[in-house]
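The instructor's notes for this session suggest beginning with a concrete chain rather than abstract definitions. Hand out the sequence below and ask the class to guess, before any prediction is shown, which regions might be ordered.
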Amino acid sequence: MEIRKLGSAGPEVPVICLGGNVYGWTVADAEAFRQLDAALDAGLNFVDTADVYSRWVPGHMGGESETIIGKWLAKTGKRKDLILATKVGNEMGEGKKGLKAAYIRQAVDDSLRRLQTDYIDVYQAHQDDPDTPLEETLGAFSELVKQGKVRYIGASNYSGSRLTEALETSRKHGLASYVSLQPHYNLVERERYETDLLPVVKKYQLGVIPYFSLAAGFLTGKYRSQRDTEKAARGALVQKYLNDRGFGVVAALDEVANAQGSTPARVALAWLLAQPGITAPIASATNERQLTDLVEAAKLKLPAESIQKLNVASSRNVVAETTAR
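After discussion, reveal the predicted structure:
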Protein backbone atom coordinates (compact mmCIF):
# COMPACT_ATOMS: atom_id res chain seq x y z
CA MET A 1 0.00 0.00 0.00
CA GLU A 2 1.46 3.35 -1.07
CA ILE A 3 1.97 5.84 1.77
CA ARG A 4 1.75 9.62 1.61
CA LYS A 5 2.28 12.28 4.25
CA LEU A 6 -0.93 14.03 5.30
CA GLY A 7 0.17 17.54 4.43
CA SER A 8 3.50 18.95 5.52
CA ALA A 9 2.88 18.39 9.24
CA GLY A 10 0.57 15.37 9.53
CA PRO A 11 1.13 11.62 9.85
CA GLU A 12 2.00 9.22 7.05
CA VAL A 13 -1.14 7.49 5.79
CA PRO A 14 -2.13 5.01 3.08
CA VAL A 15 -3.45 6.61 -0.10
CA ILE A 16 -6.99 5.34 0.47
CA CYS A 17 -8.92 6.14 3.65
CA LEU A 18 -11.62 3.68 4.73
CA GLY A 19 -14.91 5.44 5.41
CA GLY A 20 -16.62 4.37 8.63
CA ASN A 21 -19.92 6.13 7.96
CA VAL A 22 -21.57 2.83 6.99
CA TYR A 23 -20.85 1.15 10.34
CA GLY A 24 -24.08 0.86 12.27
CA TRP A 25 -26.02 1.96 9.19
CA THR A 26 -25.69 -0.49 6.30
CA VAL A 27 -22.90 -2.55 7.89
CA ALA A 28 -23.57 -4.28 11.22
CA ASP A 29 -21.03 -5.08 13.92
CA ALA A 30 -19.89 -8.53 12.79
CA GLU A 31 -19.40 -7.50 9.15
CA ALA A 32 -17.63 -4.29 10.22
CA PHE A 33 -15.23 -6.38 12.32
CA ARG A 34 -14.46 -8.61 9.33
CA GLN A 35 -13.97 -5.58 7.12
CA LEU A 36 -11.61 -3.87 9.52
CA ASP A 37 -9.58 -7.09 9.89
CA ALA A 38 -9.31 -7.43 6.10
CA ALA A 39 -8.53 -3.74 5.61
CA LEU A 40 -5.63 -3.80 8.04
CA ASP A 41 -4.29 -6.99 6.48
CA ALA A 42 -4.23 -5.12 3.14
CA GLY A 43 -2.47 -2.07 4.59
CA LEU A 44 -5.64 0.01 4.61
CA ASN A 45 -5.20 1.21 8.18
CA PHE A 46 -6.50 4.80 7.90
CA VAL A 47 -10.15 4.99 9.01
CA ASP A 48 -12.40 8.06 9.05
CA THR A 49 -15.58 8.37 11.08
CA ALA A 50 -17.51 11.04 13.02
CA ASP A 51 -19.43 11.33 16.26
CA VAL A 52 -22.64 12.01 14.30
CA TYR A 53 -22.53 8.75 12.29
CA SER A 54 -25.24 7.40 11.92
CA ARG A 55 -27.69 9.80 13.54
CA TRP A 56 -29.72 10.10 10.31
CA VAL A 57 -31.01 6.54 10.70
CA PRO A 58 -34.41 6.37 12.45
CA GLY A 59 -33.90 5.40 16.08
CA HIS A 60 -30.19 6.23 16.10
CA MET A 61 -28.66 8.86 18.38
CA GLY A 62 -25.27 9.23 16.72
CA GLY A 63 -22.07 7.53 17.86
CA GLU A 64 -22.99 4.17 16.32
CA SER A 65 -19.97 4.08 13.99
CA GLU A 66 -17.50 5.10 16.69
CA THR A 67 -18.98 2.50 19.04
CA ILE A 68 -18.47 -0.32 16.53
CA ILE A 69 -14.88 0.74 15.88
CA GLY A 70 -14.32 0.90 19.63
CA LYS A 71 -15.64 -2.63 20.10
CA TRP A 72 -13.31 -3.84 17.35
CA LEU A 73 -10.34 -2.08 18.95
CA ALA A 74 -11.16 -3.61 22.34
CA LYS A 75 -11.49 -7.06 20.77
CA THR A 76 -8.32 -6.96 18.67
CA GLY A 77 -5.97 -4.70 20.65
CA LYS A 78 -4.82 -3.13 17.38
CA ARG A 79 -5.09 0.54 18.34
CA LYS A 80 -1.43 1.23 17.49
CA ASP A 81 -1.93 -0.29 14.05
CA LEU A 82 -4.77 2.09 13.17
CA ILE A 83 -4.69 5.74 12.10
CA LEU A 84 -8.03 6.94 13.41
CA ALA A 85 -9.79 10.12 12.30
CA THR A 86 -13.10 11.37 13.67
CA LYS A 87 -15.05 14.63 13.68
CA VAL A 88 -16.91 17.02 15.95
CA GLY A 89 -19.41 19.81 15.39
CA ASN A 90 -22.51 18.41 13.71
CA GLU A 91 -25.81 18.14 15.56
CA MET A 92 -25.76 15.42 18.25
CA GLY A 93 -28.84 16.51 20.18
CA GLU A 94 -30.10 19.56 22.02
CA GLY A 95 -27.17 21.81 22.88
CA LYS A 96 -24.69 19.38 21.34
CA LYS A 97 -23.46 21.15 18.25
CA GLY A 98 -20.80 23.55 17.03
CA LEU A 99 -17.20 24.32 17.90
CA LYS A 100 -17.33 26.19 21.21
CA ALA A 101 -14.52 25.22 23.55
CA ALA A 102 -16.73 23.71 26.24
CA TYR A 103 -18.55 21.53 23.73
CA ILE A 104 -15.33 20.34 22.07
CA ARG A 105 -14.02 19.25 25.49
CA GLN A 106 -17.23 17.32 26.14
CA ALA A 107 -17.46 15.84 22.64
CA VAL A 108 -13.89 14.54 22.51
CA ASP A 109 -14.36 12.67 25.78
CA ASP A 110 -17.59 11.17 24.44
CA SER A 111 -15.79 10.05 21.26
CA LEU A 112 -12.85 8.62 23.20
CA ARG A 113 -15.25 6.62 25.37
CA ARG A 114 -17.11 5.20 22.37
CA LEU A 115 -13.88 4.45 20.54
CA GLN A 116 -12.39 2.82 23.65
CA THR A 117 -9.10 4.64 23.20
CA ASP A 118 -7.26 7.44 24.94
CA TYR A 119 -6.25 9.36 21.80
CA ILE A 120 -7.48 10.31 18.34
CA ASP A 121 -4.97 10.61 15.51
CA VAL A 122 -6.81 13.27 13.47
CA TYR A 123 -9.62 15.20 15.16
CA GLN A 124 -11.56 17.29 12.64
CA ALA A 125 -14.00 20.16 12.76
CA HIS A 126 -16.92 18.63 10.85
CA GLN A 127 -18.02 22.01 9.53
CA ASP A 128 -17.28 25.66 10.12
CA ASP A 129 -19.01 27.30 13.09
CA PRO A 130 -19.37 30.99 12.21
CA ASP A 131 -20.89 31.75 15.62
CA THR A 132 -17.73 30.78 17.50
CA PRO A 133 -14.46 32.74 17.25
CA LEU A 134 -11.77 30.74 15.49
CA GLU A 135 -9.34 31.52 18.29
CA GLU A 136 -11.70 29.81 20.78
CA THR A 137 -12.09 26.71 18.62
CA LEU A 138 -8.40 26.39 17.83
CA GLY A 139 -7.50 27.11 21.45
CA ALA A 140 -9.67 24.19 22.53
CA PHE A 141 -8.08 21.92 19.92
CA SER A 142 -4.63 23.05 21.09
CA GLU A 143 -5.43 22.00 24.65
CA LEU A 144 -6.46 18.56 23.43
CA VAL A 145 -3.15 18.21 21.59
CA LYS A 146 -1.22 19.27 24.72
CA GLN A 147 -3.18 16.76 26.80
CA GLY A 148 -2.38 13.97 24.36
CA LYS A 149 -6.03 13.28 23.57
CA VAL A 150 -5.48 14.37 19.95
CA ARG A 151 -2.38 14.07 17.77
CA TYR A 152 -3.38 16.30 14.83
CA ILE A 153 -6.36 18.46 13.88
CA GLY A 154 -8.14 18.87 10.56
CA ALA A 155 -11.00 20.81 8.97
CA SER A 156 -13.96 19.69 6.90
CA ASN A 157 -16.50 21.68 4.90
CA TYR A 158 -14.73 25.04 5.26
CA SER A 159 -14.70 27.70 2.58
CA GLY A 160 -11.34 28.80 1.25
CA SER A 161 -11.56 32.16 3.00
CA ARG A 162 -12.50 30.71 6.40
CA LEU A 163 -9.86 28.01 6.10
CA THR A 164 -7.25 30.69 5.41
CA GLU A 165 -8.49 32.71 8.37
CA ALA A 166 -8.27 29.67 10.63
CA LEU A 167 -4.73 28.85 9.52
CA GLU A 168 -3.60 32.45 10.00
CA THR A 169 -5.27 32.53 13.44
CA SER A 170 -3.20 29.50 14.46
CA ARG A 171 -0.03 31.18 13.23
CA LYS A 172 -0.79 34.48 14.94
CA HIS A 173 -1.60 32.98 18.33
CA GLY A 174 0.73 29.99 18.33
CA LEU A 175 -2.13 27.49 18.35
CA ALA A 176 -2.42 24.00 16.89
CA SER A 177 -3.05 24.27 13.16
CA TYR A 178 -5.15 22.23 10.77
CA VAL A 179 -2.93 19.78 8.90
CA SER A 180 -5.67 18.47 6.63
CA LEU A 181 -8.86 19.34 4.80
CA GLN A 182 -11.80 17.03 4.14
CA PRO A 183 -13.79 18.51 1.24
CA HIS A 184 -16.57 17.20 -0.98
CA TYR A 185 -14.67 16.33 -4.15
CA ASN A 186 -15.01 13.78 -6.92
CA LEU A 187 -15.43 13.54 -10.69
CA VAL A 188 -18.93 15.07 -10.60
CA GLU A 189 -18.20 17.59 -7.81
CA ARG A 190 -15.09 19.45 -8.91
CA GLU A 191 -15.61 23.19 -8.98
CA ARG A 192 -15.53 24.18 -5.32
CA TYR A 193 -12.36 22.28 -4.48
CA GLU A 194 -10.48 23.20 -7.62
CA THR A 195 -11.34 26.92 -7.58
CA ASP A 196 -11.85 27.87 -3.92
CA LEU A 197 -9.92 25.35 -1.83
CA LEU A 198 -6.96 24.11 -3.88
CA PRO A 199 -5.11 27.47 -3.74
CA VAL A 200 -5.30 27.37 0.07
CA VAL A 201 -4.23 23.72 0.15
CA LYS A 202 -1.17 24.54 -1.96
CA LYS A 203 -0.23 27.69 -0.03
CA TYR A 204 -0.39 26.04 3.40
CA GLN A 205 0.64 22.52 2.29
CA LEU A 206 -2.41 20.78 3.70
CA GLY A 207 -3.25 17.15 3.25
CA VAL A 208 -6.58 16.47 1.52
CA ILE A 209 -8.89 13.53 2.24
CA PRO A 210 -12.00 14.12 0.11
CA TYR A 211 -15.30 12.57 1.13
CA PHE A 212 -17.98 11.19 -1.20
CA SER A 213 -15.06 10.18 -3.42
CA LEU A 214 -17.41 7.87 -5.34
CA ALA A 215 -20.34 10.33 -5.26
CA ALA A 216 -22.38 8.14 -2.90
CA GLY A 217 -21.83 5.19 -5.21
CA PHE A 218 -22.78 6.92 -8.47
CA LEU A 219 -19.23 6.66 -9.84
CA THR A 220 -19.21 2.89 -9.36
CA GLY A 221 -21.69 2.69 -12.25
CA LYS A 222 -24.42 0.96 -10.26
CA TYR A 223 -26.93 3.81 -10.68
CA ARG A 224 -27.80 4.11 -14.35
CA SER A 225 -31.50 4.96 -14.09
CA GLN A 226 -34.06 6.36 -11.68
CA ARG A 227 -35.18 2.81 -10.92
CA ASP A 228 -31.70 1.88 -9.69
CA THR A 229 -31.95 4.49 -6.91
CA GLU A 230 -35.37 3.60 -5.56
CA LYS A 231 -34.46 0.98 -2.96
CA ALA A 232 -30.84 1.99 -2.33
CA ALA A 233 -29.80 3.46 1.03
CA ARG A 234 -28.04 6.32 -0.75
CA GLY A 235 -30.38 6.49 -3.73
CA ALA A 236 -31.68 9.97 -2.94
CA LEU A 237 -28.12 11.33 -2.84
CA VAL A 238 -27.31 10.35 -6.42
CA GLN A 239 -30.46 11.48 -8.21
CA LYS A 240 -28.94 14.88 -8.98
CA TYR A 241 -26.30 13.11 -11.11
CA LEU A 242 -28.85 11.33 -13.33
CA ASN A 243 -28.36 13.71 -16.26
CA ASP A 244 -26.34 14.00 -19.46
CA ARG A 245 -23.16 15.07 -17.70
CA GLY A 246 -23.38 12.39 -15.03
CA PHE A 247 -24.00 9.62 -17.52
CA GLY A 248 -21.18 10.98 -19.67
CA VAL A 249 -18.79 10.66 -16.73
CA VAL A 250 -19.93 7.09 -16.10
CA ALA A 251 -19.46 6.26 -19.78
CA ALA A 252 -15.91 7.62 -19.65
CA LEU A 253 -15.24 5.60 -16.49
CA ASP A 254 -16.49 2.48 -18.29
CA GLU A 255 -14.16 3.13 -21.22
CA VAL A 256 -11.10 3.70 -19.04
CA ALA A 257 -11.93 0.74 -16.81
CA ASN A 258 -12.27 -1.57 -19.80
CA ALA A 259 -8.98 -0.36 -21.22
CA GLN A 260 -7.22 -0.88 -17.90
CA GLY A 261 -8.87 -4.19 -17.03
CA SER A 262 -10.25 -2.46 -13.97
CA THR A 263 -13.57 -1.20 -12.55
CA PRO A 264 -15.24 2.24 -12.60
CA ALA A 265 -14.82 2.58 -8.82
CA ARG A 266 -11.08 1.93 -8.97
CA VAL A 267 -10.68 4.34 -11.87
CA ALA A 268 -12.66 7.11 -10.11
CA LEU A 269 -10.43 6.80 -7.05
CA ALA A 270 -7.26 6.62 -9.14
CA TRP A 271 -8.34 9.82 -10.91
CA LEU A 272 -8.65 11.55 -7.53
CA LEU A 273 -5.21 10.32 -6.49
CA ALA A 274 -3.76 11.94 -9.60
CA GLN A 275 -5.25 15.36 -8.75
CA PRO A 276 -3.20 18.19 -7.16
CA GLY A 277 -3.14 18.20 -3.37
CA ILE A 278 -4.99 14.92 -2.84
CA THR A 279 -3.55 12.63 -0.17
CA ALA A 280 -6.12 9.89 0.40
CA PRO A 281 -9.71 9.77 -0.91
CA ILE A 282 -12.24 8.47 1.61
CA ALA A 283 -14.48 5.65 0.44
CA SER A 284 -16.61 3.15 2.30
CA ALA A 285 -17.42 -0.46 1.48
CA THR A 286 -20.41 -2.62 2.30
CA ASN A 287 -19.08 -5.92 1.00
CA GLU A 288 -15.85 -7.74 0.21
CA ARG A 289 -15.90 -6.83 -3.49
CA GLN A 290 -16.12 -3.13 -2.70
CA LEU A 291 -13.28 -3.38 -0.20
CA THR A 292 -11.17 -5.07 -2.88
CA ASP A 293 -11.89 -2.12 -5.19
CA LEU A 294 -10.49 0.26 -2.56
CA VAL A 295 -7.32 -1.76 -2.10
CA GLU A 296 -6.77 -2.18 -5.84
CA ALA A 297 -7.46 1.52 -6.54
CA ALA A 298 -4.36 2.37 -4.53
CA LYS A 299 -2.27 0.40 -7.06
CA LEU A 300 -3.84 1.79 -10.24
CA LYS A 301 -1.83 4.43 -12.11
CA LEU A 302 -3.84 5.96 -14.92
CA PRO A 303 -2.09 7.02 -18.15
CA ALA A 304 -2.29 10.70 -19.06
CA GLU A 305 -4.77 10.09 -21.88
CA SER A 306 -7.19 8.36 -19.50
CA ILE A 307 -6.98 11.22 -17.01
CA GLN A 308 -7.64 13.68 -19.84
CA LYS A 309 -10.67 11.67 -21.02
CA LEU A 310 -12.14 11.86 -17.51
CA ASN A 311 -11.25 15.55 -17.18
CA VAL A 312 -13.14 16.36 -20.36
CA ALA A 313 -16.18 14.27 -19.50
CA SER A 314 -16.49 15.94 -16.07
CA SER A 315 -15.51 19.48 -17.01
CA ARG A 316 -17.63 22.53 -16.23
CA ASN A 317 -18.03 23.12 -19.97
CA VAL A 318 -20.07 19.94 -20.10
CA VAL A 319 -22.30 21.37 -17.35
CA ALA A 320 -22.87 24.51 -19.38
CA GLU A 321 -23.69 22.54 -22.53
CA THR A 322 -26.11 20.27 -20.67
CA THR A 323 -27.87 23.26 -19.11
CA ALA A 324 -28.14 24.98 -22.48
CA ARG A 325 -30.03 21.98 -23.89
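Then share the key points. The first strand starts at residue 3 and ends at 5. The first helix runs from residue 29 to 41.
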